[in-house]
Amino acid sequence: MGRRLLVILGPTAVGKTDYSIERALEYGSPVISCDSRQLYKEMRIGTAVPSEEQLARVPHHFIRDHSVTANYTAGMYEAEALALIDRLFAEGHETLVVTGGSMMYIDALCYGLDDFPEVPMMLREHLMECLRDEGVEVLADQLRELDPVTCEEIDLSNGQRVIRALEVCLYTGAPFSSFKTRRFKERDFIIEKIGLQRPREELYERINARVLNMMDEGLEEEARSLLPYRDLPALQTVGYREMFDYFDGKQDLEETVRLIQRNTRHYAKRQLTWWRRDPAIRWIDAD
Predict the structure, then answer these.
(1) Are residues 67 and 193 in the same domain?
(2) 141 and 230 belong to one structural domain
(3) What is the pTM (predicted TM-score) of this model?
């Protein structure tokens, strides 16, 4: 078959970690994580990092090896992951297992990223200040006027995503979506994608239970330790955003848990919507 990259994807809480470990053991491969948040060492509980037992079963890459203070991007992940993959193939692996739920990171690895213009740091800092002072809704409304196409494609509650698109619109005078060429870069290995799925109610029950488990493990304490970094892109993440609002007195703890569960379910729905457009994915039941 030649060199093959087996990409295991699916919505949050569907069961990717256990399935990928079984496939990695089958093929004698490490697990290459493709998760844009599990790579941060300070974010263990809220990102559902694999347990110590799971990590001990097979080597993992891109798990808790960067700091939230580092400016890490999908483009950097693409370069680092491709270099790792080349090295592992050169060592004799025929099949490598990749798993994760980050749509942008998976697309970057499989297809490459479009070339977007560099934006002055002063503009980005100004938009970050607006995000802190006025909230993401104001920036999302501005983006909707400049680029309604992008607004249909991204999570408008994610300040990082909104700022990235808006800064390109403001700096270039052209919609962020106009820079997306959809030109795939050639890879010198076969890519096979497996999507894990469950009935919606079952998936939602797993999400709700996972959030409760995170609370039991100490998500509140972990979020408090990250308060000094709350404005960094890495912390614009479901679970942490709601906790920060709780610390600000915007809602009580019970409502905070409910919001984390709801917003995680919404995120899972967006993941599935994103991947349904990819006919290369072979969907299987997670059980």
Answers:
(1) yes
(2) no
(3) 0.84
